[in-house]
Design goal:
Blueprint lengths: L10 H27 L28 H6 L7 H6 L8 H6 L1 H24 L5 H83 L1
Length: 212
């Protein structure tokens, strides 16, 4: 019995798969460029789910979810951006589902875009103002902690120094008392020695009388 030859994937299907992946990579390059350099500002773009400040700037449309990424084909953007961007088209969700690493990159890029948009609404410049402010706040917080720690170290050092001085003073007082005690014992010993000498002399005089 002859084995049925395994049918190879049609070349057209393989071409379409590679084109779909290439389209996703092209979208990612565009969006990552916006993350790096700032999302283009437009008069007609909207970004309703990002809070605005008094600057009231408008940014070009950018996908805020995987579903919107799949549907993004630049038709949502202004004519100026459409003319400047390379050709991109919609892509099927199945393509990302079959390529977990690409889907993960899309999710990360979307989150980075949302942070970039928040920074631009906050500062009206393509700078990471939010991150800079957070870094400054962290630096101030750390400096305050260090200052408090330095104060605590100085306080502990002062307490240790005072305790050391107290111990030194106590030792000096004990040494002085010991010397005074030794002095008293020396005087008592000299006095007793003198009294002993006197008694010996008296006994020397009395001894012959007792024999007589």
């Amino acid at each position: 019995m002859k084995k049925t030859a395994r049918r190879s994937e049609p070349k057209v299907a393989e071409f379409n798969k590679q084109r779909a992946i290439g389209n996703i990579h092209c979208k990612l390059r565009i969006l990552n460029g916006w993350v790096e350099n700032g999302i283009p500002v437009t008069q007609s773009g909207t970004c309703d789910d990002i809070p605005r400040t008094s600057a009231q700037i408008s940014l070009e449309y950018f996908p805020k979810s995987v579903r919107q990424f799949n549907a993004w084909d630049a038709s949502q953007n202004s004519n100026e951006i459409q003319a400047a961007l390379p050709t991109i088209c919609r892509n099927a969700n199945d393509t990302l589902r079959k390529h977990a690493h690409l889907r993960s990159e899309v999710v990360q890029t979307i989150e980075s875009l949302r942070l970039r948009a928040a920074d631009q609404f906050e500062g009206t410049k393509p700078l990471r103002i939010g991150k800079l402010r957070a870094a400054l706040k962290l630096e101030v917080h750390l400096r305050t902690l260090l200052e408090h720690e330095l104060i605590a170290i100085r306080r502990d050092l002062k307490a240790e120094k005072q305790a050391h001085n107290n111990v030194v003073q106590k030792v000096e007082n004990q040494s002085k008392e010991f010397k005074e005690y030794i002095g008293r014992l020396t005087n008592d010993n000299e006095r007793l020695s003198e009294e002993n000498s006197v008694l010996i002399r008296k006994l020397t005089k009395i001894a012959p009388l007792r024999k007589a």
